[in-house]
Design a protein that fits this description.
- By secondary structure, this protein is of the alpha+beta class.
- The chain has one domain.
- It is built from four helices and six strands; from the N terminus they run E-E-H-H-H-E-E-E-E-H.
- Strands 5-4-3-1-2-6 form a six-stranded mixed sheet, with helices on one face.
Length: 139
């Protein structure tokens, strides 16, 4: 098993349309997960897309397994942060063995892209959670 760091970026310029170089992306969450070393980036991206779009009731039924519980908890966190569903134009970065693969969500799958240059947001940390909680208290 190899540690994979998965970062999700919402496209703030072109929701529901394909990502184009230069589009503004905001990192909304990152997730560390041990996966097989041979895990394909596109398959990992599809799995993450599913977690952040599927009804939580479906994930609830798989909680008795270690990976099922981890999936359920990250999907719950995503929703508790009030993040919108992933859609065409959003981007996922998957880092394993010091190599990052960037993938743009397309209408029918994933397209490998060069590293984007218009990125904001921060990795998922205790600090970013505290910021979300403070913002929610003010709202």
């Amino acid at each position: 098993m190899t540690l994979h760091v998965i970062a999700v970026y919402h496209n703030t310029e072109s929701r529901f349309l394909p990502y184009e170089p230069g589009h503004a992306l905001t990192q909304v969450i990152s997730y560390w997960r041990r996966l097989p070393a041979f895990a394909k980036a596109e398959r990992t991206a599809s799995w993450i897309y599913g977690l952040f779009n599927v009804d939580l009731d479906q994930l609830q039924t798989c909680r008795e397994t270690l990976s099922g519980e981890a999936d359920f908890l990250i999907a719950c966190t995503y929703r508790l942060l009030r993040l919108r569903s992933m859609s065409t134009g959003d981007v996922i970065a998957i880092t394993a063995n010091e190599r990052t693969t960037w993938l743009a969500c397309e209408f029918g799958g994933w397209r490998r892209i060069d590293p984007p240059n218009n990125i904001t947001g921060e990795p998922f940390t205790a600090g970013t959670i505290h910021q979300h909680l403070r913002r929610d208290r003010r709202a």
